[in-house]
Amino acid sequence: MRKSVLAELVTNAYVHSSGECSLRLRDAGRNRVRLSVWDTNPHVPAPFRWSAEAPEELAERGRGLYLVTVYAESWGAYPMTTGLPGQGGKLLWVECAAKTDDAPSCGVQ
To answer: Residues 75-85: pLDDT tens digits?
Structure first.
C-alpha cells in the first residue's frame, strides 16, 4: 500500500529537520492542488534535486520522496536562504489533480 504524497512530505520534514515545519495546501487552478512543506533543514533531498529518474543515491534511502515525484504532476524545491534569521531551510512542493470521481488526488482524501 503506497503512502500518500502528503504523508510522505510531512514525514520527511519531521524526521530530517530538527526545527519547525509547516504544511500549506492551496488551490493551484486548473482543478489542481498544491501541497507545500517547509522545514528548517536546508538540504534539498535527491529526488527534488534531479530528474524523476531514480538516481543510484536512492538505493538505501529517499525512495519515498522519489515516489512522490512519480505520482505528482509537477514538483520542485526552493532553498529558503533569505528572510528573518533562523527561518531558512527549504520548501518542497508538489501539484496534483484535485480529487474528483475520475482523477486521483495525490493521496489527499
So the answer is: 999 888 776 66
